[in-house]
Design brief:
alpha+beta; 2 domains; four-stranded antiparallel sheet; two-stranded antiparallel ribbon; 11 helices; 8 strands
Length: 241
């Protein structure tokens, strides 16, 4: 049983969130959904304690409500941050697993919100770093430090090309080197799962982008070759509590 008297939202209130949850469940009111989102999540990386407390109920509503599915996904993407709700997350493990199964079924329907759903499922699997950075590979850039010479390397995967480069703010991306996408047999772990899921669901651009993201890049300065995803994970993987 949630003790809402202790569950503060981003407006430092404890009673409004349960009222809004009742309201959206009864009427699916658009204004109530908007206010609920503002009270539960803040910008890209923060979720209120009330947001963690609201997760089980949002997940129950998710099968019939895109708003509930999206808001629960946004909360999960921020679940690695500081929110004080670790015990609530642990208690909701079963609901989170069921939410993950729902998201996977939704992906297989090839919905218009495919990427949003894909990112939410990554968060359910505790791949928070990928959940928060993965784009649609139309215009994606990743900043990495070369593991050998420490120069800052730009990784581009999208309409501008698929390359590593050094970014010059006057000249643009200079000394470009083509990326080397990972072959299917080279992928393992989350990279393999991500690509296989995208292929299963007919998401060719996403699958190709993932193959490049988990492939190799050449440093434009020292010519060393490194695995892009390994360096990104090393720099961005959150410490799970």
């Amino acid at each position: 049983m949630i003790n809402w008297a202790r569950m503060y939202d981003w407006r430092s209130e404890t009673d409004r969130v349960p009222e809004l949850l009742d309201r959206v469940e009864r009427t699916n009111d658009a204004e109530a959904w908007t206010e609920l989102g503002h009270r539960l999540v803040l910008e890209r990386d923060l979720v209120s304690l009330a947001g963690i407390a609201a997760l089980p109920r949002l997940m129950r509503l998710a099968s019939g409500s895109a708003q509930a599915r999206h808001l629960a996904g946004e909360i999960m993407e921020r679940a690695a941050g500081q929110h004080g709700g670790d015990e609530l997350l642990a208690d909701g493990a079963r609901a989170i697993a069921e939410f993950g199964a729902l998201l996977d079924r939704h992906l297989q329907s090839r919905p218009v919100d495919y990427l949003v759903t894909f990112r939410a499922l990554l968060a359910v699997e505790e791949q928070y770093h990928w959940a928060n950075v993965l784009g649609d590979f139309t215009d994606d850039f990743f900043d990495l430090a070369c593991p050998h010479c420490a120069v800052e390397v730009i990784i581009a995967i999208g309409g501008y090309g698929r390359y590593s480069a050094v970014r010059d703010w006057n000249l643009g991306d200079v000394d470009r080197r083509d990326l080397r996408p990972a072959a299917v047999e080279e992928l393992s772990g989350v990279g393999r799962w991500m690509r296989e899921t995208a292929v299963r669901d007919g998401q060719a651009v996403l699958a190709d982008g993932i193959a490049h993201l988990f492939g190799k890049a050449e440093c434009p300065r020292c010519a060393s070759v490194f695995t892009i995803s390994d360096e990104y994970e090393a720099a961005n993987r959150p410490v799970l509590r």
